[in-house]
Every structure is written in structure tokens, then in C-alpha cells.
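can u do me a favor
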């Protein structure tokens, strides 16, 4: 299997890529092994898949530059159910149904002026 490099062209896509990169750095710092990024299926996408110990973690990343808006509020019941379905497709494809797993959403607040970010996590 080979991966096709995703090309980010719009400002929103570039912000999303930057947020995913910040999230990846955060997860590695917290001893997660990055297994995959941007795994796409017909029903949706998993932004980051990691492993820590014997447990898999599936992450939806939401990035924003606006500190007055909580991007986690954008995760509707429909989106959550779709995300759960995509995770099940991944688990079957990679034959990891036997492993314990958790679903998380990370909100990445990007500050272009100070080149810093703030990360808020929510287990779903």
C-alpha cells in the first residue's frame, strides 16, 4: 500500500495542516507513536492515528485562529457518528479490532503573532 501526499492549497486547509502538525508534536511529546495521518475513506477521514502502550488513539483535529470560538463545538452528533464509523473501517482494514482504543478531538488554537498554540483535548 502506498500513500498519496495530500496537497493543502486554501488558507483553511493550510491552517488545518499546521494544526495537525502542532497536534502531532504534542502527541509525540506525550509518548504517542504516530501510526498514520489523514487516513481517508469514503465516509470521512481520521486526522491522526497513534499508539501508546497497547492502546490505539484516533484523533479529529480542529484548528482555529479565533480564541473566542471553541472548534470542539463543531463536532455534531452526525460528525461524531461518521467519525466512529470511519474508525471501525480503519480497525478492520488494519486488523486491529482486538486492541483497546479511544476517540479524541483536539482543538488547536493558533496564534500567528506569537507563533504559539494552545491545545484543548476532549475524549469522545
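np, heres the sequence
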Amino acid at each position: 500500500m502506498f500513500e498519496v501526499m495530500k496537497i493543502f492549497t486554501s488558507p483553511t486547509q493550510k491552517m488545518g495542516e499546521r494544526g495537525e502538525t502542532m497536534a502531532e508534536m504534542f502527541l509525540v511529546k506525550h509518548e504517542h507513536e504516530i501510526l498514520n495521518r489523514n487516513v481517508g475513506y469514503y465516509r470521512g477521514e481520521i486526522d491522526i492515528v497513534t499508539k501508546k502502550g497497547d492502546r490505539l488513539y484516533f484523533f479529529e483535529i480542529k484548528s482555529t485562529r479565533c480564541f473566542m470560538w471553541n472548534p470542539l463545538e463543531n463536532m455534531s452528533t452526525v460528525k461524531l457518528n461518521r467519525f466512529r464509523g470511519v474508525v471501525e473501517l480503519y480497525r478492520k482494514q488494519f486488523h486491529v479490532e482486538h486492541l483497546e482504543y479511544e476517540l479524541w478531538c483536539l482543538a488547536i488554537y493558533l496564534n500567528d503573532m506569537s507563533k504559539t498554540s494552545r491545545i484543548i483535548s476532549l475524549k469522545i
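The chain has a mean pLDDT of 83. hope that helps!!
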